[in-house]
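Is this the right way to post structure tokens for a design question? Let me know if I should format differently. Anyway, here goes:
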């Protein structure tokens, strides 16, 4: 089983969107039993809050179910629990590495790096543009799935 934790600042916009989209992509291929997918925040600001209404609206617009979710904070133990800890931007990566106490096993990634793109996933909390965020997440997730040799043929 491949265990993936998506991480952003508050865990109500980008990481929640990535969790929902990835869950949907995996279910479409009947691979649910082979993946464990979750999301978390680097901050405590939104702990306990549901997904942002903009994330919910965008996912509904494209026909992707929103996973049941309340924001949680990433913990040091998450580093040992997950195979991939995927952040949405450079600040997330710095904070994730700090929370984990380093990245000795090379498990921390920036989502768009899988697509060979160095920039951050657009943050709709500031931009209000959930369409751009969704496009970034789809680009990153598609490239990520293609990077997994045992699953590339499915995607």
């Amino acid at each position: 089983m491949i265990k993936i934790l998506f991480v952003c600042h508050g865990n109500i916009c980008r990481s929640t969107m990535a969790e929902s989209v990835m869950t949907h992509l995996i279910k479409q291929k009947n691979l649910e039993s082979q993946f464990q997918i979750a999301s978390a925040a680097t901050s405590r600001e939104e702990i306990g809050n549901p997904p942002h209404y903009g994330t919910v609206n965008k996912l509904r617009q494209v026909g992707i179910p929103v996973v049941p979710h309340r924001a949680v904070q990433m913990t040091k133990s998450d580093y040992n629990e997950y195979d991939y800890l995927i952040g949405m931007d450079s600040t997330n990566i710095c904070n994730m590495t700090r929370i984990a106490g380093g990245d000795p096993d090379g498990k921390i990634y920036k989502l768009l790096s899988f697509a060979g793109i160095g920039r951050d996933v657009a943050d709709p909390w500031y931009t209000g543009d959930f369409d751009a965020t969704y496009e970034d997440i789809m680009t990153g997730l598609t490239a990520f799935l293609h990077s997994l040799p045992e699953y590339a043929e499915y995607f």
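Format looks fine. Someone answered above. Worth noting: The first strand starts at residue 2 and ends at 8. The helical segments are 14-28, 53-61, 76-81, 90-100, 124-127, 130-146.
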